[in-house]
Write a structure and sequence with these properties.
Chain A: Pfam families: PIG-U. Chain A: Its main location: endoplasmic reticulum. Chain A: This is GPI transamidase subunit PIG-U. The structure holds 2 protein chains of 2 kinds. Helix content of chain A is 67%, strand content 0%. By secondary structure, chain A is mostly helical. Chain A is globular. Chain A has one domain. By secondary structure, chain B is α/β, with parallel strands linked by helices. In chain B, a hairpin with a 2-residue loop joins β2 and β3. Chain B has an 8-stranded mixed sheet, sandwiched between helices. Chain B has a 6-stranded mixed sheet with strand order 12-9-7-13-16-15, covered by helices on one side. Chain B has 5 domains: 28 residues; 114 residues; 181 residues, no CATH class; 175 residues, no CATH class; 43 residues. In chain B, α11 packs parallel to α12 and α16 runs parallel beside α18. In chain B, 42% of the residues lie in helices and 16% in strands. The radius of gyration of chain B is 36 Å and the shape is elongated. Classes of the chains: A mainly alpha, B alpha/beta. The interface between A and B is medium-sized, with 16 and 22 residues.
């Protein structure tokens, strides 16, 4: 039973989002490149819906890159009677945001309390309700939801996957992961962290297994002995809260990953089928029939496999909506300025090198998944947070909504945040960048007194900020491990 | 933990190892194998040797005097065509056949072609012809002697005997061509009938008997025939009279045949003509057609002030069908003409006419014309009603080269000035300040402007009449004036300098009047240039006072150009257009292929799709077809193949895949790879060194422990 404060937070967040819509802020936000990108923006969704209403395939041309389910959701909500055309859609996104916040709240309970006595729960970094409020009233998430983007859907699916993984629900995790991948593609990189979460539970440090209760902890920090003793007490509680998931400790991680991968693929195929059902009026855009046509060519011999691999892209290119939607982040086709690091890079790239560097940019996102899992084999939440941060930094078309999720999930890491040395610097620098970015954009586009280099310098600084932030997270994680093993850092 | 670090390093190295073949595959430069030897060799081999051949059939038709005919033959041979120095066309592949005879059973046929001139003497042909003199039929004899002459004659046709029946004066070349239906009428084959005047000028022994000077007349028809009528002396058998005859003929031929040559084969060299009008002629800028030979004529009716009413197209489909279709039809062998129309309102211009009391109208001097068309008129292309048919060049090949090669557009603006500027007339250049007869002007490569001063629009009483009440369709007369102006502009933009100049001098100032009238009904249209001092001193002296030299020094001559009815372009003008277009297309294609080959060889990292290779091969094959057709004298196929070659070459050279690429040296790739991979590589190397040190330390410790 939710408390009254929870209900008030949820209702006020919905009210705030609708208020932003009614006063025209939402319409303005749809024009901001920081909030709306070609892959998640409301204009793309509305364009697709307009095409469908006129019996034209939404993927004819390049004006719509929204997924069929996003378009269908918009079409379903647009028939609701409302003063503002986009109000039902915005209301739906607000409800999804509330759902995401509730999931985050529950996740916080799972991750931060770590089985500590009720008297110790208040010593978590933030209370669950406050965490929920921080997510719902976070300006980044707020703008993303008010602008009608599909990012809240993706974020909610990610949080649902994390929550299900913490609970140990493999099927629910797979379905949520497939849904998040369907909306944003990059969440597929959470497969390994979610596997670790399912296996080891939330934030069970590998070092805790070696920690002897009552062992002294020496941490060279400003917190001094008081901080160290509290940390020692909290981390020691982890050891006492060995959950039922430890019973599966003998289960092979690889086997679990394969199982999760298989379940995710099946779930994704189900979503493809649902999308094809939505696009039943446009048979040429359906994906599964195209795949079924290709399967007979998939002979088990090598030559047949090679032939299929060589013919599949052309077939997909000609007849599948997924190619229209997912080629955008994979091939970096749209070079509209955004918060990412790649638009300027690819604008200056020699054309014959572009395909290779598109591969490099996407591979860079996936490069750190396995090494971080090797280094932190039992810290699923940390791995998920790192991967969300890396994706937020390196994805093709990031928006502020991705950053909002990143900062909210970060709080789940709990006590290790206290090892952040430059937290104030990071917060102030993010605040400064959030002001400088629109200012440089205004100078470049509106005032025409600057050029693209001015804006790109801000996105580069944002990338540097991400790197420093990630290094801080890793450093603090290493400090926790060191503290538990009585090392001096 | 050390094992974990090793696994991480191993993972990264495996990652990089797996990425290496992907890097190789994705950065491998794709380019088809091009026939560079053929692409570069074609420029020197084709552009020099590519000529569409010209066949000249000269028929010397004199029924009265064999000696006179011999004199004419001598003059024609030596002065007009067959002298190697003065007539270089013979060297370049022109075939000249001469049929001569004083009657139907006594004639001879001579032929000159480049091989004969190069390897032997034309006299040999003449002797061979003389040896069979006396055969029954002159043309039959010609066919018997010259095998290829048969190609010019239709079997079962008439002979010169039918030509003998043409005694009417003046001789009309077009009617003569109809009568000579046995002669094959095809592009590149021209007929010159040289005849004596029936009412011959008589040079008597006494100069008093010569009331007027000898006269020569050249009539160039609208098809492919011309009639040259030379003065004949009544008693030409004496040596003195023959000498005088020879002198008169020389003078007459010197004046008339260069004009004939300018009309029929002056553009044969395919080289740019020297400007004769003081400005750059459009012909020197290349034909305003696309590589595929397409030309879109955008007709815009621009009403400057529509408040009191404005002109609109009446029935443009009907106008196009009745008036413009003949023009399109006659030009179809050389280019594909299409039309579109639009009506624009409020098309004001910053150029204002100045009132002239002399002309009682507002006048526009030539200096103001370049700024007359305003950029804000919005002369859009592709938005109006359009009549378009398939291109003259078949582009439905396996690879369509017209992709990315837009058609050329010529604008023709009919400008209706505002009421306060009417009538507005364009003045011709020059000191006379004479109004332009067509009230129009053209801009090279852009099109033309015709100023229309309608009277009906002024009669609208009230300002602000709404809707269709203010619309006035063009009248029939206005449409005909417009068509005349359009064709005149097209002629100025398409024809060669020499042809246009000739028309301007001899054919009503180069203006086409619709409907066209021929010379018999409008003989005043032609221009007689007048008396020319022709006699040379030596000739005068040779006369030795036996006749009045003054009467010989003045040989009057006249030239008549017959207009093509309805179409505006004569067949021989279209032939010249085909020669010019095919030569231009072949030259452009060869230059483009050569440039493409040089560029590809120079830029080793230039990536190209396979389509470019296919287009290059298609262009080379089309060039071969053009050369083959040219050797056969097949104008239509040669022009078509040349156009296709140009289109394919243009499409290959202008392929967006090439144009979109940046040209950079391979060393610039260092700048591409270093910023991203150097930091990663440094970190990896540092980690590897650290691990190696760690392993070495462990090994040392183990050794130490093992030793102790």
């Amino acid at each position: 039973m939710p408390s009254s404060s929870t209900v008030i937070i949820c209702l006020s967040s919905v009210f705030l989002r609708l208020t932003l819509l009614s006063i025209g802020v939402s319409e303005y936000l749809t024009t901001r490149i920081e909030v709306t990108t070609l892959s998640n923006g409301l204009p793309s969704i509305k364009e697709g819906a307009h095409f469908v209403n006129n019996n034209v395939s939404p993927y004819d041309g390049s004006s719509s890159r929204a997924t069929p389910i996003s378009i269908q959701l918009y079409q379903l909500t647009s028939v609701w009677p409302a003063v503002h055309q986009d109000a039902p859609h915005c209301l739906l996104l607000a409800i999804i945001d509330v759902l995401a916040a509730v999931l985050l709240r529950n996740l916080s309970k799972l991750a931060c309390t770590r089985g500590a006595p009720p008297t110790e729960q208040s010593k978590a970094v933030v209370s669950p309700d406050l965490l929920m409020a921080m997510y719902l009233f976070n300006p980044l998430s707020l703008m993303s939801s008010a602008a009608g983007t599909s990012t809240p859907l993706e974020n909610c699916c990610i949080l649902l996957a994390l929550h299900a993984a913490c609970k140990g629900y493999l099927v629910m995790t797979a379905v949520s992961l497939a849904a998040a991948t369907y909306f944003g593609l990059y969440p597929i990189l959470l497969l390994v962290p979610l596997t670790v979460l399912i296996k080891c539970g939330p934030d069970q440090t590998s070092a805790t297994q070696k920690l002897k209760p009552g062992a002294g902890v020496k941490v060279r920090s400003e917190g001094g002995a008081i901080q160290s003793s509290r940390l020692q007490r909290e981390l020691a509680a982890d050891l006492q809260s060995s959950s039922a998931r430890n019973r599966r400790s003998s289960t092979s991680v690889v086997f679990l990953a394969l199982l999760l991968c298989l379940a995710t693929i099946i779930s994704f195929l189900a979503l493809l089928a649902l999308s094809d059902l939505i696009l039943q009026d446009f048979p040429s855009e359906q994906c599964l029939p195209m795949l079924m046509r290709q399967i007979p060519a998939l002979n088990l011999n090598l030559s047949g496999l090679m032939h299929t691999c060589s013919t599949l892209p052309s077939a997909v290119q000609s007849s599948c909506w997924a190619f229209s939607v997912y080629r955008l982040p994979l091939l970096f086709e749209d070079l509209t300025p955004n918060l990412g690091q790649w638009w300027y890079f690819f604008a200056q790239m020699f054309p014959d090198q572009r395909l290779f560097f598109a591969f490099v940019a996407n591979a860079l996102c996936a490069l750190f998944v396995v090494p971080s899992a090797i280094r932190f084999p039992s810290r699923g939440l940390l791995l998920a947070t790192l991967q969300i941060g890396i994706s937020c930094m390196l994805r093709a078309y990031p928006s502020v909504g991705d950053l909002g999720l990143y900062l909210s999930v970060l709080i789940l890491l709990g006590p290790q945040l206290q090892f952040f040395k430059i937290g104030l610097f990071l917060a102030n620098s993010l605040l400064l960048l959030s002001v400088l970015g629109p200012a440089m954009w205004h100078q470049w586009i509106d005032a025409e007194s600057a050029n693209s280099n001015f804006y790109y310098s801000i996105t580069l600084l944002l990338g540097a900020w991400h790197v420093v932030f990630l290094v801080q997270i890793l450093t603090s994680a290493l400090k926790v491990e060191a503290a538990l093993t009585s090392k001096v850092i | 933990m050390a094992r974990g670090k090793t696994y991480i390093l191993l993972w990264i190295f495996l990652f990089l190892l797996a990425g290496a073949p992907i890097w190789w595959k994705l950065t491998k430069i794709q380019r088809p194998n091009l026939p560079h030897d053929g692409m570069q060799g074609i420029l020197t081999s084709i552009t020099v040797g590519f000529k569409l051949p010209i066949k000249i059939l000269i028929i010397l038709h004199f029924r009265h005097s064999e000696r006179f005919a011999n004199v004419v033959l001598e003059q024609v041979s030596s002065r007009l065509l067959l002298d190697r120095e003065t007539s270089p066309q013979v060297e370049k592949g022109m075939h000249v056949h001469v049929i001569t005879g004083t009657n139907a059973t006594d004639c001879m046929c001579l032929t000159w072609r480049s091989q004969s001139v190069m390897h032997g003497s034309p006299i040999q042909g003449a002797e061979a012809a003389a040896s069979v003199r006396g055969e029954a039929d002159c043309l039959a004899m010609a066919v018997g002697i010259l095998g290829d002459m048969a190609a010019m004659l239709k079997p079962g046709g008439s002979s010169l005997q039918e030509l003998s029946a043409a005694d009417e004066q003046p001789v009309h070349p077009d009617k003569l061509m109809e009568r000579l239906h046995s002669l094959r009428d095809e592009p590149g084959t021209y007929f010159l009938i040289v005849s004596s005047m029936t009412s011959s000028f008589a040079i008597h022994d006494t100069p008093e008997a010569s009331p007027e000077g000898p006269a020569a007349e050249l009539i160039i028809g609208s098809q492919r025939a011309a009639v040259l009528t030379l003065p004949q002396i009544v008693h030409p058998d004496s040596d003195t009279m023959l000498s005088i005859q020879r002198h008169v003929l020389r003078n007459a031929l010197d004046r008339t045949v260069p004009i004939l040559a300018a009309a029929f084969w002056q553009d044969y060299d395919g080289e740019a003509q020297a400007p004769t009008l003081g400005t750059l002629h459009p012909s020197q800028q290349g034909l305003p057609v696309s590589a595929a030979g397409e030309l879109l004529l955008s007709l815009s009716l621009c009403n400057a002030d529509p408040e009191l009413g404005y002109l609109v197209w009446g029935d443009f489909d009907q106008l196009s069908q009745l008036l413009l279709e003949p023009v399109k039809e006659v030009l179809s062998p050389a280019l594909s003409l299409s039309f579109e129309s639009q009506v624009l309102l409020y098309t004001t211009t910053s150029v204002k006419g100045a009132w002239s009391d002399n002309h009682t109208s507002y006048v526009l001097p030539q200096s103001k014309l370049p700024r007359f068309v305003d950029g804000h008129w919005g002369l859009n292309v592709g938005g109006g009603s359009r009549k378009y048919e398939g291109a003259g060049v078949d582009l439905q090949a396996a690879v369509n080269p017209s992709n990315g090669v837009p058609e050329h557009v010529l604008h023709f603006v009919t400008y209706v000035p505002p009421p306060e500027q009417r009538p507005l007339v364009v003045l011709l250049p020059g000191p006379g300040k004479v109004p332009s007869p067509t009230n129009s002007f053209y801009l090279p490569s852009w099109g033309g402007v015709h100023i229309l001063n309608p009277e009906v629009l002024v009669q609208i009483p009230s300002r602000g009449a709404a809707g269709r009440d203010r619309q006035h369709p063009l009248t029939k007369t206005q449409e005909e004036i417009l068509v005349s102006s359009i064709v005149t502009t097209l002629r100025a933009l398409l024809l060669t300098d020499s042809t246009d100049t000739l028309r301007q001098k001899f054919g009503r100032g180069g203006i086409y009047y619709f409907p066209a009238t021929d010379v018999q009904t409008n003989s005043e249209g032609s221009t007689i240039l007048g008396q020319v001092d022709a006699a040379e001193a030596s000739v005068s002296n040779s006369l030795d006072g036996k006749m009045d030299s003054a009467s010989l020094e003045s040989v009057s001559w006249s030239v008549h150009f017959l207009d093509a009815p309805h179409s505006g372009f004569t067949l021989w003008e279209v032939d010249g257009l085909m020669r010019r277009r095919s030569a231009d297309a072949v030259k452009s294609a060869a230059e483009l292929l050569n440039s493409l080959s040089l560029m590809v060889l120079e830029l080793r990292n230039l990536e190209m799709p396979d389509l470019i290779g296919q287009q290059v091969h298609q262009a080379l094959a089309s060039l071969d077809q053009a050369v083959e057709a040219a050797q056969k004298g097949d104008y239509a196929n040669a022009c078509k193949a040349a156009g296709m070659a140009h289109s394919f070459a243009e499409a290959a050279f202008s392929n967006p895949a090439i144009l979109a690429q940046l040209s950079y040296p391979p060393s610039h790739l260092v700048g591409v790879y270093v910023p991203l991979f150097l930091p990663l590589g440094m970190s990896l190397v540092q980690a590897v060194i650290s691990e190696a040190k760690q392993l070495r330390k462990i090994a040392k410790s183990a050794t130490y422990l093992h030793g102790h």
